[in-house]
From TrEMBL, chains A, B:
Presence of the UniProt keyword Lyase in the record: yes
Lineage: Bacteria, Pseudomonadati, Pseudomonadota, Alphaproteobacteria, Hyphomicrobiales
Pfam family, one: Orn_Arg_deC_N
EC number(s) recorded for this UniProt protein: 4.1.1.17
Protein name as it appears in the record: ornithine decarboxylase
Catalysed reactions listed for this entry: L-ornithine + H(+) = putrescine + CO2
Keyword terms, alphabetized: Lyase, Pyridoxal phosphate
Length: 377, 377
C-alpha cells in the first residue's frame, strides 16, 4: 500500500521524525470506486477520518459531499470549496450555539437521535432537514459500535414525528453498521429497520425521503473492484427488497474507506531490547505510538501492516511499543508482532493503511513529543 | 478539590468551552508535603504529568528537580529556571541524537534498562551517570504498570556493569511501584530488589549511590498529612531494613501526586437522552471526553469526582460520554455514574482531580474540537 509516489517522496525528502504521507491518487481512486459501486448514493466524506485541506479540496472538486462532526469541520469543508448544501452536520451531540452557528453558515441537514436534540435544532436551525439515527446490532464488524449513537427504531418514529411537529423537515433515517463491516446481511437488517420507520410515519402522512447508510465499508474491498461492486449490488438488492419501487435517496459516509489505504506512516526503531536474558520475545520501540497517532491500536483492535527493509528474512515475535513514558503506550503485546530478526535500532519502518484516524487522534504534546506531521502528495 | 480560587476564577472569567484550571497554591502545598514526608529524598517532578510553564517555574523556584521524557521536556524545565544538574532524562527509550542534544544542554543523568541504551549513552553522553530501571510486580497499584519499562534485577547487574566498562558512572537503580500505589509493602519488595543489585555490584567493586523510587504516591494521601508521613516512615524503614546504615541517595518522581488534585476541568452538559423509552439509564454527553483530555478514563480506570449545582438532590445512574462522533468516546458505561435527576442540558459540571495527564493527552483536533485549554492561577 506504500505507493511508488509515497516511496519516492520519502526517499527524496527524507523527513526527520515520524510522519504520515498521503497519496491523493489513491483517494481519487477510492472516490471513483465508491461512485461506481453505489452509483445512486451521494457520497458524504467523513471529514473526521482525515481533515487535511488537500484531501478536502480534491474531494470537493470531484463533487463529494461532506459529513462533519463540529462547526470547525463545517468550516474546513467550506474552505475547501464545498457549498453548504453539500454538508451534513452528522454529529448527534451538538451544543445549541454550534447549531446556530452552522445554520448561519447555511447548513440545513442535521443528525439527531432524541427529542432533546430535535428541540435544539427547531430553535437554532428552524425548518432544517433532520435525519434520525437508529441503533444497529453491529454484528460482523471488526470494530462494533457502542450504543453511543442512535435510538431504537420505535423511538426514532417519535423523534421524527416531534421534528415535523416543530416545523422541521423530517427527512430520513441513518444507521451505521460498524467499522470494517464484512457481513452483507448487516445492511439488509438495518435497511429493514429503516423501512419500518418510513412505513409507520407514512401512515401518519409523514413522508421520509432519505436513508443515510453511514460508513463501515471495509477498506480492503476497495482494491478489488468486483468485490466493491458486489457490495454495491448487495446493498442495492436490500434496498429493493425493503423499499420496492419507492427507493429513497441514499447517502453513504465513508471515512476510513476513502483515505485509510492512501496513507503510510514512516517511523524509526528507537530501541530493541529484552527484559531478561532468557526472554524469547523482543521489545521493539518505535518513535510513534498510541499517543502519537496510533490510537486505534487500542485493545489491539487494528493491526497495521508493517514494512521493513529486511522483509523476507527470518522473523520472530516482538512486543511493539511507542516512545513515551506511559506504560499504556504499547501497540501489540497480547498478540506479538512478527518482525525480522535482522531489524536494528535506527531502521526505518513503514506502517501501512494509516491514512485515516491518525493525525487527528495524535496528542498535542504528550511527553513533549510533537503531534504527527502529515504530507499530502 | 475545587478550591475557592478556582471557583472564583470560573465565576469571574466565565471561560467558553471546556477548560482546566490549576491552582498553584495546591501544587505548592503538595511539594511541601512531599518534602516533609520524605525529607531525605530529592524530588524530581515528572514533567509529563503537566508541563504548564507556571507549574514548572513555581517548582523550579521551590528547589524541585525534574524528571523529563524528551528533549522538549528538558528544554521546558530549563526555560522554567531549572539548571541542568537538576534534570534527569528519565525515559528509557531515547534516540541517540536526542541523547546527544540533551548532553549538549548539560544533562548528565540518564535512565536505561538495557545494554543497547547504555551503548547509545556511552557514545552520545560520555561519562554521564546512568541508573537502571528494574521491573516490579506492580501489585496493589490502581494502575499497574506493564512490563514496558525495566528489566529483571539480574539483568540490571549486567547493564550497570556494561555502563561502567564503557566509562559511564554506574549511578543507581530505579523502579516504579505502579500508579496510585496503596500497598506499602510494594516499596519494601522493590527496595529489596534494588539492594540486591547494589550488593552484587559492590562485590565487583562497583559502588552504586542512588535509588530512584519513581512515582506512584497516591494523591488522596497528600491531603492527609499524617498519612503522607506514614508513607514516608514506611519507605524510610524499608530503606533502613535493606541498606542498614549505608543509606543511598534517594530520588522520588511524583507527577500525579504533585498536580492531580490541583486541577479542575469545567465542562458543559451538551445532551441528556435515552436510547429507548423504557431505558432506565440516561446518557449524559459532556463537551469533553476521552479525546479532549480525559484519556485516563480508558477501561474506566480512573473515576473522577464530578460536581454539579444539583448535588444533594436525588441521583440516578448515567452513562457518561464525550462529544465526538467516536463510539469509543465513552467515559463510564460498565459502571454507570450516579448524577442528579435534575441535571439539565447546558449545566456546568466540574470534573475534579484532573490536574495531571489531561492537557497533554488531549488530541490535536479530533472531530475538529480544539485541544483542552488550561489556566494556571
Amino acid at each position: 500500500m506504500a505507493t511508488q509516489r509515497i516511496l519516492d517522496f520519502l526517499a527524496t525528502r527524507r523527513p526527520n521524525g515520524p510522519c504520515l504521507v498521503v497519496d491523493l491518487d489513491v483517494v481519487r481512486d477510492n472516490f471513483r470506486a465508491f461512485e461506481k459501486a453505489l452509483p445512486d448514493s451521494r457520497i458524504y466524506y467523513a471529514v473526521k477520518a482525515n481533515p487535511a485541506p488537500e484531501i478536502l479540496r480534491l474531494l470537493a472538486a470531484m463533487g463529494s459531499s461532506f459529513d462533519t462532526a463540529s462547526v470547525a469541520e463545517v468550516e474546513m469543508a467550506m474552505d475547501a470549496g464545498a457549498p453548504a448544501d453539500r454538508i451534513s452536520f452528522g454529529n448527534t451531540i451538538k451544543k445549541e450555539r454550534d447549531i446556530a452557528r452552522a445554520y448561519q453558515l447555511g447548513i440545513r441537514l442535521y443528525a439527531v437521535d432524541c427529542v432533546e436534540e430535535v428541540e435544539k435544532i427547531a430553535r437554532a436551525a428552524p425548518g432544517s432537514r433532520v435525519f434520525c439515527r437508529v441503533l444497529t446490532d453491529g454484528e460482523g464488524a471488526e470494530w462494533p459500535l457502542s450504543r453511543k449513537f442512535g435510538c431504537v427504531p420505535a423511538m426514532a418514529v417519535d423523534v421524527l414525528r416531534h421534528a415535523k411537529a416543530l416545523g422541521l423537515d423530517a427527512y430520513g433515517v441513518s444507521f451505521h453498521v460498524g467499522s470494517q463491516q464484512t457481513d452483507l446481511t448487516a445492511w439488509d437488517r438495518a435497511l429493514g429497520d429503516a423501512k419500518k420507520v418510513f412505513a409507520t410515519l407514512a401512515e401518519e402522512g409523514i413522508v421520509l425521503k432519505m436513508v443515510n447508510m453511514g460508513g463501515g465499508f471495509p477498506t480492503r474491498y476497495l482494491k478489488d473492484v468486483p468485490a466493491a461492486q458486489a457490495y454495491g449490488r448487495a446493498i442495492f438488492s436490500a434496498l429493493r427488497k425493503h423499499f420496492g419501487n419507492a427507493l429513497p435517496e441514499t447517502i453513504i459516509e465513508p471515512g476510513r474507506g476513502m483515505v485509510g489505504n492512501a496513507g503510510v506512516i514512516k517511523s524509526e526503531v528507537v530501541l530493541i531490547s529484552k527484559k531478561a536474558d532468557n526472554d524469547n520475545v523482543r521489545w521493539v520501540f518505535l518513535d510513534i505510538g498510541k499517543f502519537g497517532g496510533l490510537a486505534e491500536t487500542m485493545d489491539e483492535a487494528i493491526r497495521y501492516p508493517i514494512v521493513t527493509r529486511h522483509d523476507g528474512s527470518e522473523t520472530a515475535p516482538c512486543v511493539l511499543a511507542g516512545p513515551t513514558c506511559d506504560s499504556a503506550d504499547v501497540l501489540y503485546e497480547k498478540t506479538p508482532y512478527p518482525l525480522p530478526l535482522s531489524l536494528t535500532i535506527g531502521d526505518e519502518v513503514l506502517i501501512e493503511g494509516t491514512g485515516a484516524y491518525t493525525t487527528t487522534y495524535s496528542a498535542v504534546a504528550f511527553n513533549g513529543f510533537e503531534p504527527l506531521r502529515s504530507y499530502v502528495i
